[in-house]
C-alpha cells in the first residue's frame, strides 16, 4: 500500500501528524471532491437496497474502491475488491479509526453519525487503546458457556414460536428474528426484571427505527448506566459483571461504550443473519429437500449467506489522513471516510471459483485487528434459532414469492423489512388463561416515561399487528398480545 500526500507525493509525514493535518473545513472540501469526475453512488437509496450486487458491479468500473454517499452530503470511499479490503483492514497505520476530526465537519443530525461517531469502544480506536478495550471484550465473551448460551436461545425461541405456532402464519422477522437476540442478551446480562423491561423495550424500539427510536436511545443509555452501577455494587455471574471485573479496569464511560457496542453488534446483525438465512432456506430449491429430514443444511445456508448477503454489508469506517493507493492503483483520498464493503469484496469476480459453503474465507466477520470477536456466539444463536423454526414448523414456507420480499434501505445493513411465512398450524401448550398476575417484567412506569409498555417490555406497537393480537377478550379486559403472556410465562420459568 502506498501512502502519498494529497498532491500525490510518496512518503511525507506520519499519518495523523498534527503539523501537517488540514483544517476540518479543508478536509471537508476535499472529501466532497471525488478523485475523478464521477458522481457518488447513493448507498441510502431504494435502488441500492433492492439490488446491491448490481450497484457493486457498476462501482467496479472505478477500480477496487468506488465513490459513494452514505447519506445525502456524506461522501465516502467504498472498498469493493477482496484483496483491497484485506489490505485496508490489515493496515491500521494508513487507515486510522478515529473519526473525531471528520465528525466535526458533519451536522449533528447527520443520520450516519450514530454508527460512525467516536466512542471509547474497540471499533473507533487503534493501537494500544484498541488492544486494551478489545481484550476486555473478547475475554468476557469467551467466558460465555456455549451450553448455557444454547439453553438461552432454545428457551427464547420456543417462547416466541409458541405464540404463533397455532396461527398458521407469522412474520418471522418482526415476531421472531428481531426479538430473539434481544431476549438472549437480556439473559446474558442477567438483567433484573425492572431494567430488563426497559432494556428490551428500548432495543426493540431502536431497531424498529420509528418515531420512538430517539427517545428510546436516551432511555437505553440511562438503563445501561443503572445496570452498570448495580453490577459495580453487586457483581453477578453475567457478561457485564465479567467486563467490570476484567483486569483492564474499564471506567464507567468505557463500560457504557463497550456495552453499547456489544448490544449494537450482537443484536441487529444476528437478527439479520437469522432472517436472511431463513429466506434462503425457504426459497432455494437446493435446501428445500432437506428441511424435514434429519440433517438440516442450516450451517451451509449460514455460510452461503455470509458470502452473498452478509448482515453487516459495509462498515469498518476509517479516516486516512494521506492519499493512499490500493494494490490496483485506485487512490483513496485523504479526509474522505473509507468504508469496507464486506458484501462487495465477497462478490469480487476474481473469487468466483473459490466461493462455496466449504470455503469460509468470506469477510462477513471482517479481518485484521477489528475482526468480529463474537463470531462463535453469533453462529450458535443463528443456527439454533433457525433449527428451532424448522423443527417446530417443518412445513413452513414463504407466504410471498421470494422476489416480493423487500429490503430495508441503508448503507450498512443487509436487512429484510419482513419475512412473512405460512405453515400448517401446530398445537401449543394451553395458555393458563385468566388475568395474569403482575409480572416482574411489567414496568411500574419506572423508566418508561409514561408510555405504554408490554409485559415483556417490548413496545406494544412493535411487531406487526394481527387480527389475533387485536381481538379484545369477551370479558372486556384490555387486550394483550398472546406473545406477551408467553414471555411472562417464560420469564417466570413456566
Ligand atoms: C451475524 C452476526 C454478526 C456479524 C455479521 C458481525 C460482524 C462484525 C464485523 C464485520 C465487525 C468488524 C467491524 C469493524 O471493523 O469496525 C464486527 C466487530 C465486532 N463485533 Fe461482530 N458481528 C456479529 C455478531 C456479533 C456478536 C454476537 C457480538 C458480541 C456478542 C459481536 C461483537 C463485536 C465487537 C465487540 C466488534 C468490534 C471488534 C473490534 O473493533 O475490535 N458481534 N462484527
TrEMBL record:
<feature type="region of interest" description="Disordered">
    <location>
        <begin position="426"/>
        <end position="482"/>
    </location>
</feature>
<dbReference type="GO" id="GO:0005506">
    <property type="term" value="F:iron ion binding"/>
</dbReference>
<dbReference type="GO" id="GO:0016705">
    <property type="term" value="F:oxidoreductase activity, acting on paired donors, with incorporation or reduction of molecular oxygen"/>
</dbReference>
<feature type="compositionally biased region" description="Pro residues">
    <location>
        <begin position="426"/>
        <end position="441"/>
    </location>
</feature>
<dbReference type="InterPro" id="IPR002397">
    <property type="entry name" value="Cyt_P450_B"/>
</dbReference>
<keyword id="KW-0560">Oxidoreductase</keyword>
<feature type="region of interest" description="Disordered">
    <location>
        <begin position="1"/>
        <end position="26"/>
    </location>
</feature>
<dbReference type="InterPro" id="IPR017972">
    <property type="entry name" value="Cyt_P450_CS"/>
</dbReference>
<dbReference type="InterPro" id="IPR036396">
    <property type="entry name" value="Cyt_P450_sf"/>
</dbReference>
<dbReference type="GO" id="GO:0004497">
    <property type="term" value="F:monooxygenase activity"/>
</dbReference>
<protein>
    <submittedName>
        <fullName>Cytochrome P450 107B1</fullName>
        <ecNumber>1.14.-.-</ecNumber>
    </submittedName>
</protein>
<dbReference type="GO" id="GO:0020037">
    <property type="term" value="F:heme binding"/>
</dbReference>
<comment type="similarity">
    <text>Belongs to the cytochrome P450 family.</text>
</comment>
Amino acid at each position: 500500500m502506498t501512502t502519498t500526500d494529497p498532491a500525490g507525493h510518496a512518503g511525507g509525514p506520519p499519518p495523523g501528524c498534527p503539523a501537517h493535518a488540514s483544517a476540518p473545513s479543508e478536509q471537508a472540501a476535499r472529501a466532497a471532491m471525488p478523485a475523478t469526475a464521477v458522481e457518488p453512488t447513493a448507498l441510502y437509496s431504494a435502488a441500492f437496497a433492492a439490488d446491491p450486487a448490481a450497484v457493486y458491479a457498476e462501482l467496479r468500473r472505478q477500480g477496487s474502491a468506488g465513490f459513494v454517499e452514505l447519506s445525502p452530503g456524506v461522501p465516502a470511499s467504498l472498498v469493493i475488491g477482496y484483496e483491497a479490503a484485506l489490505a485496508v483492514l490489515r493496515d491500521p497505520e494508513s487507515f486510522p479509526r478515529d473519526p473525531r476530526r471528520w465528525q466535526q465537519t458533519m451536522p449533528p443530525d447527520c443520520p450516519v453519525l450514530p454508527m460512525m461517531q467516536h466512542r471509547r469502544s474497540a471499533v473507533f480506536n487503534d493501537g494500544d487503546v484498541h488492544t486494551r478495550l478489545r481484550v476486555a471484550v473478547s475475554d468476557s465473551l469467551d467466558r460465555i458457556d456455549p451450553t448455557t448460551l444454547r439453553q438461552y436461545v432454545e428457551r427464547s425461541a420456543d417462547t416466541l414460536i409458541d405464540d404463533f405456532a397455532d396461527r398458521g402464519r407469522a412474520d418471522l422477522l418482526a415476531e421472531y428474528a428481531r426479538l430473539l437476540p434481544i431476549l438472549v442478551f437480556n439473559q446474558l446480562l442477567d438483567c433484573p426484571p425492572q431494567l430488563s423491561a426497559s432494556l428490551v423495550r428500548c432495543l426493540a424500539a431502536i431497531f424498529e427505527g420509528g418515531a420512538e427510536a430517539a427517545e428510546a436511545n436516551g432511555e437505553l443509555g440511562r438503563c445501561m448506566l443503572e445496570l452498570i452501577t448495580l453490577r459495580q455494587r453487586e457483581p453477578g455471574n453475567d457478561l457485564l459483571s465479567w467486563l467490570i471485573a476484567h483486569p483492564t479496569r474499564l471506567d464507567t464511560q468505557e463500560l457504557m461504550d463497550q456495552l453499547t457496542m456489544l448490544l449494537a453488534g450482537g443484536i441487529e446483525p444476528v437478527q439479520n443473519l437469522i432472517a436472511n438465512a431463513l429466506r434462503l432456506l425457504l426459497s432455494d430449491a437446493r435446501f428445500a429437500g432437506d428441511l424435514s429430514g434429519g440433517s438440516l443444511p442450516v450451517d451451509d445456508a449460514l455460510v452461503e449467506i455470509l458470502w452473498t448477503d452478509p448482515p453487516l454489508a459495509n462498515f469498518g469506517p476509517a479516516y486516512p489522513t494521506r492519499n493512499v493507493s490500493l494494490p490496483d492503483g485506485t487512490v483513496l483520498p485523504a479526509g474522505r471516510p473509507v468504508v469496507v464493503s464486506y458484501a462487495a469484496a465477497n462478490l469480487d469476480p476474481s473469487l468466483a471459483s473459490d466461493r462455496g459453503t466449504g470455503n469460509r474465507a468470506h469477510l462477513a466477520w471482517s479481518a485484521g485487528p477489528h475482526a468480529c470477536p463474537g463470531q462463535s456466539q453469533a453462529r450458535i444463536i443463528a443456527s439454533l434459532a433457525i433449527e428451532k423454526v424448522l423443527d417446530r414448523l417443518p412445513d413452513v414456507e414463504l407466504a410471498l414469492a421470494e422476489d416480493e420480499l423487500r429490503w430495508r434501505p441503508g448503507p450498512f445493513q443487509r436487512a429484510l423489512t419482513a419475512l412473512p411465512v405460512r405453515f400448517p398450524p401446530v398445537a401449543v401448550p394451553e395458555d393458563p388463561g385468566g388475568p395474569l398476575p403482575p409480572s416482574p417484567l411489567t414496568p411500574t412506569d419506572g423508566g418508561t416515561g409514561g408510555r405504554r409498555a408490554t409485559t415483556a417490555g417490548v413496545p406494544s406497537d412493535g411487531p406487526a399487528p394481527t387480527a389475533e393480537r387485536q381481538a379484545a377478550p369477551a370479558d372486556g379486559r384490555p387486550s394483550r398480545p398472546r406473545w406477551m403472556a408467553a414471555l411472562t410465562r417464560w420469564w417466570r420459568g413456566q
